[in-house]
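We store amino acids, C-alpha cells; thus:
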Amino acid sequence: MPDPCVAGVEAVFRREYARAVAVLVRHFGDIELAEEAVQDAFAVAVARWPSAGTPPSPAGWIITTARNRAVDRLRREASRDSRHAAAALVHAGDTPVEEGPVHDDRLRLIFTCCHPALAPAARVALTLRLLGGLGTADIARAFFVSEPTMAQRLVRAKAKIRDAGIPYRVPREADLPDRLRAVLAVIYLIFTEGHTAASGPRLVREDLCAEAVRLGRLLAELMPDEPEVTGLLALMLLLHARRAARTTPGGDLVRLADQDRGLWDRTLIAEGQDLVRRCLRRDRPGPYQIQAAINAVHGDAPDAAATDWPQILRLYDQLLALSPAPVVALNRAVVVAEVSGPAAALPLVEALPLDGYHLFHAVRADLLRRLGREAEAATAYEAALARTANEAERAFLRAARRALRV
C-alpha cells in the first residue's frame, strides 16, 4: 500500500507547487533557482514527513525550506565569486513590497512570463511549466510538438530571461492589455489540462481546474472591461459545471451525450450563462466568448436530444472565421455530423492536418462506425489509442474498439 504521508506530499505538491515557485521567483528574481529550490524542498519532505509527521502548515514549510535551500546555494556560489549569485542574494535581502495592479503571486508570474521579449509560444509554455506544474511531455502534447522540441523551447526561454535581464516585477497597468492574449492562453491551457489530463489514471485533475478558475476570477476582477477575460471565465465555469457527470464512480469516461445532466452544477451554469449575456451586450465577440456561448447552449438543453445543434453550428462558423485553427474545424465537424449526418462530416475531418492528435482519430473512428465502415473505424480507434496517455480515455477507446464487429 502507498504510504499515506507520501501521498500527502504529492497532494501538497499538486496544490502548492505553483505558489511556492511564484513566491521564490519574486523573492530571488531567478527562475531556475526557484524551481530547483522548490523541488529540493519537496524531496526533503518526502524523506522527513513520514517519520516526523506532516507539519501544521505544509505550504509554509515548503516555502520556508525552499527559501533556505536557495539562500544556502547562493551563499556557496557567491563565495566562489559568482556575480549572479551575489546579485540574487542582494535581491532576496532587499525585495520591496511592490505596489501595482496585480497582487497575487501566481497571476503576477503569469504576466511577467508573458513578457514581449519572449516568443508567444515560449511565454505560454514556460508559464505552463511554472504555474501549471506540467511536465515537458504534457506541454509538448498541448502544443502538438515533440518532447525534445518543447524542452529546447523551455531552455531557450529561461536563457532569454537570464541573458536579457528580464525583471520579475508587476507590469505597469498600461502594459497589461498587450500581454493579455498570452495570459488568457496560459490560464485556459492550465484549465484544459485539468479538464482532460494529458496522462495519468484520471480523466480530470481537479486541482488544475480549480486553479485556472481562481486565476480567471482574479483576472476578471483586474480587467472587468475586457470581454475576452469575461468570456474565458464563463467558458471555464460552464465546462467545469459538468465535472461530476463526466466520469462514472469508477472513473470511466462518459460522453457528453450520455451524461446525467442532473449532476451538472446549475449554480456554475447560471453564473457562466450570466457572464455570456454580459459579453453579448458588449458586442465585441472573441474566441473565448464564442466558445462560452457554445457551452451555454449545451447548458440550456435538458437532455442531449434537445440540444440546439443548428445554433451551435452557427456559433462554430463564427468561431472558425475568427480562429481558423484545425482543432476548431474538427469540433465544428462534430457538430456538422449532428446537423447533417456523418457522411457530411467525414470529408471535413479527413482534410485536417491533425494526425498527431488523438481526438482527430477518435472523431474519425466514430464517424466511420456510424457509417458502417467498421474495419476502418477499428484502425482509427487504434490510431487514437496510440496517441493518448490518459488511462480513462484509453479505456473508453478500447471499449469502443471492442464493440465493433471486426
Notes: Residues 78 and 86 are 5 Å apart (CA to CA). The chain has 19 helices and two strands. The two ends are 40 Å apart (CA to CA).
